[in-house]
Specification:
The protein has 47 residues and is an all-alpha fold. It has one domain (3-44). It has helices spanning 3-24, 28-44. The longest helix is centred in the first third of the chain and has 22 residues, at 3-24.
């Protein structure tokens, strides 16, 4: 992955989170946090 691609993906994610905060009200950070915790618990099975 080139630096340009990484920056583009980063900016798109930031714009999505900003749009969620201002207009969409989907609570994406909360949803993603809960999914991340569930994923970490799933991975702890392999320990």
């Amino acid at each position: 992955m080139t630096t340009r691609n990484a920056i583009t993906i980063f900016v798109l994610i930031l714009l999505l989170l900003l749009a969620d905060r201002l207009w969409l009200h989907w609570d994406l950070p909360v949803f993603l946090g809960k999914r991340f915790v569930a994923f970490v618990e799933y991975l702890s099975f392999w320990r």
